[in-house]
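Support request from a user on the community tier.

User writes: "When I paste my structure tokens into the form, the page sometimes reloads and wipes my input. The last time it worked, I copied everything first. Here is what I submitted, just in case something in the input itself triggers the reload:"
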């Protein structure tokens, strides 16, 4: 065989080879990249023995604080067991526990793979032809999301908030059941802010970990003396419901134009399309949650109650 032929074979071999990852004693082959965020990458992987596919989340840590945040996420996966919250299959930590200058470590999390993708993906496909979801289907999915959030808000001894609820953080099963994912932003729901330093710290965390078009107004401009609670999630849920009706958050257009999302959110005003297949009842449910003043915003039990009441009314009218 000539040198050129051998060179081509070697190049093809390199091109076709797949990266292998070990999580504890299990060997996974990386198939393709599914997504990338500010703090992590998600790959589609295959267990080389069972041939079953999973999503592998990899977080690169550049500091001890990064490690703590990533390991805390794993603890939340282990703690939160609900049919509408994603489960953790396996996890491992690679690297030094004491990061030195310019060194990094990695945290791997093996999660279920949902071939339908996210609610965001599903809505985006339907948006191309303005194929609106039926309101009954919207409520079915939305109420299951609410139940997952209620489970977090009712957690003992300390209530938890997701802090980054959005359509791209909800996976869909083959049967279109929602599964809330990405617990990297989860935190104790109630935060007592005492002074400008506390306020700035929380505001900075929100800017890093809470997506703008779904972020509650009190997280854009945190007051120096206040209490932030789980009702940040209620605002985000209103944006999710709006997106389920109209394919995008009410503040996505502002974000895409490059205008100030903070000003739009803090005004508390949203517009509904004039040409709509949805009744005022659907809009009222969104507005019920979308209160600019968090003290006027309902808690999760009231949102579930109102959503189920609306669904019953629809069923009785058939």
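"...and here is what came back when it finally went through:"
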């Amino acid at each position: 065989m000539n040198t050129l032929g051998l060179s081509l074979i070697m190049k093809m071999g390199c091109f076709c080879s797949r990266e292998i990852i070990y999580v504890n004693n299990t060997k996974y082959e990386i198939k393709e990249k599914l997504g990338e965020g500010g703090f992590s990458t998600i790959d589609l992987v295959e267990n080389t023995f069972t041939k079953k596919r999973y999503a592998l989340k990899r977080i690169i840590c550049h500091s001890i604080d990064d490690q703590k945040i990533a390991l805390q996420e794993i603890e939340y996966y282990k703690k939160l067991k609900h049919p509408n919250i994603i489960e953790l299959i396996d996890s491992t930590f690679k690297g030094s526990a004491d990061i030195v200058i310019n060194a990094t470590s990695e945290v791997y999390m093996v999660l279920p793979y949902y071939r339908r993708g996210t609610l965001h993906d599903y809505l985006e496909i339907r948006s191309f032809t303005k194929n609106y979801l039926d309101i009954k289907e919207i409520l079915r999915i939305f109420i299951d999301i609410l139940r997952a959030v209620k489970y977090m808000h009712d957690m003992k001894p300390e209530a938890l908030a997701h802090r980054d609820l959005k359509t791209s953080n909800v996976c869909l099963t083959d049967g279109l059941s929602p599964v809330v994912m990405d617990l990297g932003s989860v935190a104790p729901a109630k935060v007592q802010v005492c002074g400008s330093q506390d306020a700035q710290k929380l505001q900075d965390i929100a800017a890093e970990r809470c997506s703008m078009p779904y972020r509650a107004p009190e997280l854009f401009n945190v007051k120096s003396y206040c209490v932030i609670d789980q009702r940040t999630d209620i605002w985000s849920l209103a944006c999710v419901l709006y997106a389920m009706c109209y394919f995008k958050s009410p503040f996505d257009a502002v974000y895409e134009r490059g205008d100030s999302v903070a000003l739009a959110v803090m005004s508390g005003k949203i517009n509904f399309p004039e040409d709509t297949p949805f009744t005022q009842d659907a809009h009222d449910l969104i507005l019920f949650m979308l209160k600019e003043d968090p003290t006027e915003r309902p808690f999760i039990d009231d949102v579930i109650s109102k959503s189920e009441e609306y669904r019953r009314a629809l069923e009785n009218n058939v």
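Agent notes: The reload is a front-end session timeout and is unrelated to the input. The radius of gyration is 22 Å. The chain is about 40% helix and 20% strand. Escalated to web team.
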